[in-house]
Amino acid sequence: MRYRKIPEETVRRLPVYLQGALHLSRRGGESTSSKELADLIGVEPWQIRKDFSYFGDFGTRGVGYSLGSLIGRINKILRLDTGHKAALVGVGNLGSALLAFPGFRVYGFEIVAAFDIDKRKIGRRKAGVLIEETTSLGRLSARGIHLGIIAVPETASQDIADALVKAGVRGILSFAPRRIVVPRGVKVITIDIAMDLARLPYYVAAG
Amino acid sequence: MRYRKIPEETVRRLPVYLQGALHLSRRGGESTSSKELADLIGVEPWQIRKDFSYFGDFGTRGVGYSLGSLIGRINKILRLDTGHKAALVGVGNLGSALLAFPGFRVYGFEIVAAFDIDKRKIGRRKAGVLIEETTSLGRLSARGIHLGIIAVPETASQDIADALVKAGVRGILSFAPRRIVVPRGVKVITIDIAMDLARLPYYVAAG
DNA sequence: GTTTGTGAATAGTTTCACAGCA
DNA sequence: TGCTGTGAAACTATTCACAAAC
């Protein structure tokens, strides 16, 4: 394998492959093939092989991929092998759902801190996590937290992002329907639920 | 403008342009330029002009775009000009948050029906919407509902998708972390929150 | 025989640079 | 002059087809 820049789309697909591999592993599988994995997750086998090829040899020709080593390799590439602590800001309807959401564990994430501006919520616990004052967002990196999740209203989202960056957060998952501007070296991924829904009627009409 | 196939990526950006145009309009603007809109939403001006060019002339050379006609054009292309009714299945933590979520209105969506399997929730109302039995999902298309939102546990998601399709739904927004298989003519958009978060550490480490 | 890994071909998308109009 | 609209160029990603390895 020769070195080439990792395509953006390949990075987007790696978590999908990881999820598929974890699924097969949980079902008791020991190994898989690009065909089996492809059928499971709904892509083409060559896409998987091509994507893996950017990172070196993953499998054995004529045999396939060991699920254990596959999961290990992808986890390492995505830096999911160490586990990550996240801070949630905004414990409203969506924030509460995220606190209770079990799916983060699959990838080794844990929400260990929650913040809200509403005085009545401060000091209470949701899903075992103490709700703290947003104004005392403080030094998250000192608490081992490098990821932030923004679930506050649109108008407050940029201020919260600024505070998170100041507190040492390097990666942000934002649910606010608005562009978040951050310094170089900080990555923001935005999930705009309504905007994703807004694409549906176009496809439905097109058939 | 000559006809060409609309690029997938262009369709993905149209809601972003629409949101930006709506934002400027709400702020009292009458018109805009590709530069202003681009700066607002964080893309390049030529990308906007190129995307619009697939659908014909949107603006006036030397002047810019009228916000009113721009919003009208994009709404029409995305089929958002008529408004859409959606059914929610799964009124757990996430489903409840979605019922209370005000952001859908921006694009003319309304959740008018909610379903759950939990007998204790049936008959109650959440955010003004009556919770009905999942088993009686019935004929949604007869109620003018052509979109479904899936917020049930992963294991039930495919069955719910099948039921929604049977009930006449043509577009599905799914929050289940799993591939949903549907017949031709039905479109599924999946939001896998944990999977999106799973990409973050990769970028954070890469800088 | 089976399945991986990968150059080469094809397809799709972004970026450029400027002609075309107001 | 100012800003749109768009072919052409540059870049990126997908798909193919097959040699290499077990």
Describe this structure in words.
2 copies of one chain form a homodimer. In chain A, the strands form 2 sheets. Chain A has a 7-stranded mixed β-sheet with strand order 5-6-4-3-7-8-9. Chain A starts with 7 loop residues before the first helix and ends with a helix. Chain A has 7 helices and 9 strands, in the order αβααβαβαββββαββα. Chain A is α/β, with parallel strands linked by helices and 207 residues long. Chain A is 40% helix and 19% strand. In chain A, strand 3, helix 5 and strand 4 (109-116) form a beta-alpha-beta unit. In chain A, helix 1 (8-26) runs antiparallel to helix 4 and helix 2 (34-41) packs across helix 3 (45-53). At the A-B interface, helix 1, helix 5, strand 7, strand 8 and helix 7 of A face helix 1, helix 5, strand 7, strand 8 and helix 7 of B. The structure holds a DNA duplex (22 and 22 nucleotides).
